[in-house]
Amino acid sequence: MNIRRKLALQFSAIVATILSVFCIGIYSLSENYRQEEFFSRLESRAITTARLFVTVEEVDKKLLQIIDRNSIHSLFREKVLVFDQTDSLVYSSVDENQVQVSPHLIGEIRQRNKIAYEENDLEYVGLTYAGYQGDFVVISSAYDRYGRSKLKNLRDILIAGFLVGILLIVASGYIFAGQALQPLARINEEIADIGEGNLSRRVNEGNGKDEIAQLGMNFNHMLHRLEKAFAMQQQFVSSASHELRNPLAAITSQLQMMLEKRRTIEEYEHSLRSLLEDTQTLVSLTNGLLLLAQSDIDKQRLLFTKVRIDELLFAAQNELLKAQPSFHFMFEYDTLPDDDALLLIDGNEHLLKTAFLNLMDNACKFSVNQTVSIRIRVEPKAIDISFTDQGEGIPEEDQVLIFTPFFRGRHTASNVPGHGIGLALCQRIVSFHGGTIHLDSAPGQGSCFTIHLSRG
Known about the structure:
This protein has helices spanning 3-54, 61-70, 103-112, 145-192, 211-260, 265-294, 309-323, 349-366, 396-399, 410-413, 422-432; strands spanning 79-83, 89-92, 114-119, 122-131, 134-142, 305-308, 328-333, 344-347, 371-378, 382-388, 436-441, 447-454. It is α+β, with helices and mostly antiparallel strands. The protein has three domains: 3-150, Beta-Lactamase; 211-294, Signal transduction histidine kinase, dimerisation/phosphotransfer (DHp) domain (Helix Hairpins), CATH 1.10.287; 300-454, Histidine kinase-like ATPase, C-terminal domain (Heat Shock Protein 90), CATH 3.30.565. A hairpin with a 2-residue loop joins strand 4 and strand 5. The chain is rod-shaped, with a radius of gyration of 50 Å. The relative contact order is 0.07.
């Protein structure tokens, strides 16, 4: 069952329930009103008959029967009975042979003074009437032909109106559901036409105010992110292929030269050293690509532990010194915290260490004296780590692209070896930990990369 039919049926069921409750309520109120009004008429007839029979001496039993049978206010199948203080029948508006009244009923009427009930489609009213000779019991009964006929007509009208109303409700509900879902159908058609080759297309956002428009805007935002991801993927594949091709081409070229003719041992050694350098470059590039891919792993799959930032920075320093003994490191605290717990954050030690290594290595490579200044600033709910070099600085036009994978500035591409992966990897690792990385640089004044990591 599609949503349109489901909405139409649900809407119809709700309205039908309300309509049925309304109809039942009207019928019940009308029935109560009819019964109460007829009981009132029976009571009036009983009191009138009792007054004429008990109070007016000129009216005897036969005359009273004639009056009851020919009165314009007489009721259908009307019967009025009067019992004296000994519970004996002293008057009946019909043949006395048709009268059957239990003593228990007469006693209940005397006890309660007045009762009203229904039996075999007849309404009964019994009451006591005070006369000169004692309390009389009067029972009046009749069939409400006119009231029941009107009630039957009302019931037929309500049933017919209910059925016609249900048909109209179902039809209008189906039309209304179709109109309400029309924007969704339009968006669905537009989405069906969007594929990997035309991610630049966008769905119609309508009036930009209601829930359908919000759905369209959210879907357009998702398309924008997908388009951006596809573009980054294409750029990544293109750049990675280009970077991998260079060392592989160099290795292939040198192997071909070595196989062209026999060479001296010195020449073979020189070629092998060159091959080793190209192989190390290829291994470094491959490791960088692997780390860049791993930085997008689902957070739940990585182990987060309490990591002490200063100790991790010292460990990264020691590891870098083993590979580059000429590098120099200067550490500085804004204020040394009294509580060592302020230096702890929740994070993945391996990834954070990789980010610190990249920033330290870059700062040393670009500094004239191969020195990096590392500044640690502890705040109540965060930690800031700044890496400052003494290099040439980064031009403003390059700063907006500095965290793009494989991007290298024009002034560094030929002077410093690298592949343009490190800073992109650092940004992803820091973002993965819920932090930010900020660059502050100007030509001739060096560069400062600041990592902001929240403790909570």
